[in-house]
Amino acid sequence: MKKTLLILIFLSCIVMANNLPELGDYSSSKISENEEIFIGRQILFQVNQSDSIIRDIEISDYLDLLGKRLINASTDPAKKIEFFIVNDSSINAFAMLGGVIGVHSGLFLASNTESELASVISHEIAHINQKHISRFLAQQERASYQSTFLMAVALLLARSNPQLASTTMAGASAGSVQGALDFTRENEKEADRVGIQTLNNAGFDVRGARDFFTTLKKANQFSGGAAPAFLQTHPITSNRISDIEDRLKDYPYKQRLGSQTFHYVKGKLKALLGDKSNTKNILEENIKNKIYINEAGERFALAYIYLMDNEFIKSQEQIQWLFDNEKSNPMLSQLYINYLIKTNKVTEAKKLYIQNLNFFPSNRSFIFGLADLYLRTQETEKALKLLKKNEQKFLQDPILYNLYAKVYAKQGEKLLQYENLAEAAYYSFNLQEAIMRMDLAIKANDGDFYEKSRVESRLKKFQREQQFQTRDK
């Protein structure tokens, strides 16, 4: 399924090229902000439809927090950028129109430090903030807007996965696509400069940018000669490396420790992806022979694999080591809660959730995990109370609305069930599904006057938005 997501995005963008909304004067050569938002929403719609996306709350929240930290330190702190993680072992990340950044799981696993990972993400943020993609489009004639749009999509997909370049060129001329790729090469130097400044402003080790290229070289040695995807889409020249080295001289060395959460995220990815049996053997050997960058991260991964394989005693041993040797961390607590649930100690799991929420009151994993556990044990009112208490924190989170829908389904309240399913679809960028579900809410036989008025108003908003997106040029 590695290519599924990107192919879906490409196919949807072909439709988009023929249905782009009329926003602004076509004598203008610029892509408007509204057009970028529209494109970004369409990309995120396909992202949310794909089974190639890693949806784990802890992993997603870590990437979002890391991204926000870098955005706040960037040249455009107010910029809204959405992040997602692709289940792809290649070492890569890519920026797309509309403020969207995709990160491959392989990039997480290949990064030795949090600063290495942050250096790549800050580089991609720089591509967006410096408007490298939209600036390329601005050079094209509006008369050939559709072909230009497809050309840009080809560029974006080629950045993400070079193997797709030949497929995407079917929708645009090969010469134009090559010109687009040349344009991005010219901007790599600028993205390096701006990205390194952002990295420093955010409190990371700027030498992570240089160290990441060392990591890529090592990966290249063991890949049979094929360059890592990041090198194919972000070409490295001797001048570029020299320029990076010169820039690093401007930043005095500072000891900056990365977050332990970074190593736990890597550990969880190791446990969730690939061949568990093979990964387990490697982790056991690494710990036995002390071959690791971070021992806690290796043991964290091993604890999860043991737990998934129902080796509860071994999992508990690793968890105990982590609690004895490491500082408290929400991911350690969630690991132990998962252990309690799987060993049928549900009451203890609930107590630990509540205890942890006293220290981490906004932790999505704890809030949604406890609500789901209440639902599984038929404590519907407790689940509803917990969700309402935390609703304002997650008003654009589809998980909140899906949990609400489960609560109301158990209570037999059809209008509220369909209303929340509609909101979940809307915040998953699936406008058509949102309209269909909100229509079902209106047709439900229950609900009071105020509830019916609310869903009717919301449906009209969805329909106006759909008309705005699909009107002919």
Brief digest:
By secondary structure, the protein is mainly alpha-helical.
Description:
- With 473 residues, the protein is mainly alpha-helical.
- Among the domains are: 4-248, no CATH class; 395-473.
- 68% of the residues lie in helices and 3% in strands.
- The protein contains 24 helices and three strands.
- It is flat, with a radius of gyration of 24 Å.
Structure characteristics:
single chain, about 475 residues, mainly alpha, three-stranded mixed β-sheet, 24 helices, 3 strands, about 70% helix
Q: What is the terminal separation in angstroms?
A: 35 Å
- Report the helical percentage: 55-70%
Average pLDDT for all residues: 84
Structural class designation: mainly alpha
Query: Can you count the beta strands?
Result: 3
Sketch the topology as an H/E string, one letter per element.
Answer: HHHEEEHHHHHHHHHHHHHHHHHHHHH
Provide the low-confidence segments as ranges: 14-29, 164-174
Number of helices: 24
Main beta-sheet annotation: 3 strands, mixed
Strand content: under 5%
Order of strands across the biggest sheet?
Answer: 1-3-2
Rg, alpha carbons: 24 Å
Q: Tell me, what's the shape?
A: flat
